[in-house]
Structures are given as C-alpha cells and as structure tokens.
Amino acid sequence: MFATTPLRVVAVSAGLSQPSSTRLLADRLAAATRERLAAEQDRDDRDVEVRVIELRDLAVDIANHLVSGFPSAGLREAIDAVTEADGLITVTPVFTASYSGLFKSFFDLIDNTALTGKPVVIAATGGTARHSLVLEHALRPLFAYLRAVTVPTSVYAASEDWGSSGDEYTEGLPSRIRRAGSELASAVLGRTVSGASRSPGLDDGEDAVVPFEQQLADLRLD
C-alpha cells in the first residue's frame, strides 16, 4: 500500500496572553476543520496533520528578521509550514480597530506570491462586537494582496460570544466555527468553496457552481 502525503492544516495565532482567547479560537477552528476533513473524504483517506503556530513565541525572531533580513531556524520553519500548508487558519486579536502589529509583521515576511491560491479562514477576537468589521476592512484585503483564497465565512469572537448559543437573529459562535471549518475542508479537498453539493437548476447558467480548482486557476492568471 502506497503511503500518501497527509493533509496539512496550519493555524496561526497572534494572541499575546496565556491562556489566550485567540489561541482558543484557533484551536476550535482547527478542530472543526479536522473533523470535517475526516468526514468528507470518500476513499483513500489521507491523514490530517494540524499545527498551531504561536506568534508570541516568535516575536523576537520576527523583529530581528525585519531589521536584519535573516530568519532564525524556528521562524524559517514556521514560514515554511504556512506556505506549504494545504489550508490555513489565521487568528488575530483586535488592536486599535485592526489586526495586531505582531500578526502583520509575520505576514510581512512572507513573499506576496507564496500563498497564491491557498484557502484561508480569517478570524479575530476582541472585547466588543463593535470591531467585527476588522475582518472585512483589514484581514480580507491583506490576504487578497497575498493572493490567498479566503473562504466565505469569517469568524469574529467578542468576549460575550464565548458560552453564547446565539439568538433568533444571530448564529452562535460554535455554529460559525463549524461553518468556517466546513468551508475550509471543502476548499482543501478541491470542492466548491461553500461546500455545497447540488445540481444546477433550470435558472442556473453553466457556471452556477464553480469548482474550487477553477477558482484557483482563474486566480493564478492575474
């Protein structure tokens, strides 16, 4: 029996405290993705490897690399893990209504073509829901610049979201985590970004459901 390369999911957490709600959200998203990957593989199942990179442990190395241009062995390994992953989860705390400086500094070290076509979940944590738009006005443009493919569902966790089951108007945090993990798993496996499986209806054109691999091909053309 031939050995197959495992599917690699890497989560990047920019939390500074310990314990950290940012790390907790990264762990929950990684677990949801792993669970969905295991469920969606039809045959010739591949192992799933999940790694969480804590940027707080690399903060000094990141600063040294920014001024010297030479990464440490640990930082080089972390960058390689991110660029070689099949799927990426990125989580940052919100500082002054944007991503943290540590988070941005790490991704400044990655070549702007190294993440081309890579499926990414973007997520953030903050003390209040008022900063949830950081996902759209800061994180999504950053990964668009890096030519990654962000899945439709982004996840913001305010302090009050932990332990909340949601209400009639909003979905709870666990539901959003599961949906984002499902979308990332589908993207990693080359299916539609939404994870939906359906036949085009009478009102649908030929391109009603665009396969994920086609989206990647279109992205690489620019």
Oligomer: single chain
The fraction of residues in strands falls at: 15-25%
Query: Topology as H/E string?
Result: EHEHHEEHEHEEHH
Helix count, per DSSP? 7
Principal-axis shape equals: globular
Relative helix content? 25-40%
Using only C-alpha atoms, the radius of gyration works out to 18 Å
Using DSSP, what is the number of strands?
A: 7
Distance between the termini: 40 Å
Biggest sheet record:
7 strands, mixed
Q: What number is the mean pLDDT?
A: 84
Class based on secondary structure composition and strand pairing: alpha/beta
List segments where confidence is low: pLDDT < 50 over at least 5 consecutive residues.
194-222
Report on the architecture of this protein.
With about 220 residues, the protein is α/β, with parallel strands linked by helices. It is built from seven helices and seven strands, in the order E-H-E-H-H-E-E-H-E-H-E-E-H-H. It has helices at about 20-40, 60-70, 75-85, 100-110, 135-145, 175-190, 210-220; strands at about 5-15, 50-55, 85-95, 100, 120-125, 150, 155-160. Helix 5 (about 135-145) links the parallel strand 5 (about 120-125) and strand 6. Residues about 195-220 have low confidence and may be disordered.
